[in-house]
Amino acid sequence: MTSPSEDPADLDRAAPEAEIAARAAAVRNWGRWGEADVLGTLNFIEPAKRVEAAALVREGTVVSLSQAFDTNGPQKGWRRRTNPVHTMTDTGTDAERGSQGFPHGIGGADDVIAMPLQCSTQWDGLGHIFDHGNAWNGRRAGDVVTSDGDLVTGIEHAASVIVSRGVLLDVGRHLEPDTGELADGYAITARDLESTIAAQGPSSAVGRGDIVVVRTGQYARARRDGWGDYAGGPAPGLSLTTAAWLHRTEIAAIATDTWGFEVRPNEFDVPAFQPLHQVAIPNMGLTIGEMWDLDGLAEICAQRGQWDFLLSAAPLPITGAVGSPINPVAIL
């Protein structure tokens, strides 16, 4: 079978179904780790990879890669995605007034938060996206995710898994050195990823079990100019044609500083929605991260000329969830 082209110019912009199907077939990992698998490409993270990653820690510098979780976030209510609502259930005022009912003068504060699991920095789990009714590993979507949650590939299975060598590919800085920001709608190609690696040097080489974080610069722009249409609007991101690169590199996971990971608008002249998600999650078994803050890490990596680090990005073990908020940290 001829492999699909990795040049976006060769995409048939009137045929998303055919283009998605060709790439899904080319990268499909169903059965690769057995019929019962629940981790997909996270299986590439082996103990030796974590030992390799731990050796990258030289100074003990820790950088959070998370956006804030508060009401000033980017969400606008699409498909009931809202920003977090944080409510205090006990306060210092209650303690001062002695209204909490505790003995010998002790008081306290308590709080609760209500939010969609994918409203800020997060992982897309393997139960998040389906392809023609199929979930990861060829299971029927309705057998996997029900009103009780993801009964098979819930995000809790990854709770102790996502610690590995992280690699920052600052594509924004590489392609747009004056601004460090790719234009909305720019489709990042496999050639762009490889040229970024070549420009950054050996520490950004990508291989099996690595977690790749791609900086486009869109988050920096949103932080400076306001959210605008950051959530769901035009954005730089990976081209559908990078599916083969994501597959052959055998990376464990990938994350970006954008809302949707892939380029928006998507690369078709007829209705289409997140075609790379449709290829990568249910077919390849790839865990995808979105809305990561990579700006501080990018500055440190550029100053040091070192682009790899120990990355810890555990999801909350929320039973049956198809995604999870996270506070990923890079340790250098």
Q: Which key terms come to mind for this protein?
A:
10 helices; 2 domains; two-stranded antiparallel ribbon; 24% helix; 332 residues; Glucose Oxidase, domain 1; globular; nine-stranded mixed beta sheet; alpha/beta
Task: Please sum up the structure shown.
It holds the Pfam family Cyclase. This protein is of the alpha/beta class and 332 residues long. It has helices spanning 16-27, 47-54, 92-96, 141-144, 171-175, 190-200, 218-225, 243-248, 275-284, 295-304; strands at 62-64, 85-90, 110-114, 122-124, 145-146, 149-150, 163-170, 187-188, 211-215, 237-238, 253-256, 287-290, 308-312, 323-325, 329-331.
Secondary-structure element order, as H and E?
A: HHEEHEEHEEEHEHEHEHEHEHEEE
Total individual domains: 2
Structure class = alpha/beta
3D shape: globular
Report the span from N to C terminus.
43 Å
| Low-pLDDT windows of residues | none
Q: What is the CATH superfamily classification of the largest domain?
A: Putative cyclase
Radius of gyration (Å): 21 Å
- Tell me the name of the CATH class of the largest domain: Alpha Beta
Largest sheet: 9 strands, mixed
* Strand count: 15
Number of helices: 10
Our estimate of the beta-strand percent is 15-25%
Side-by-side strand order of the widest sheet = 1-15-13-7-9-11-12-4-14
The helical percent reads 10-25%
Give me the CATH architecture of the largest domain, please.
Answer: 3-Layer(bba) Sandwich
Pfam family, one: Cyclase
InterPro entries: KFase/CYL, KFase_sf
Keywords: Hydrolase
Region (Disordered): 68-105
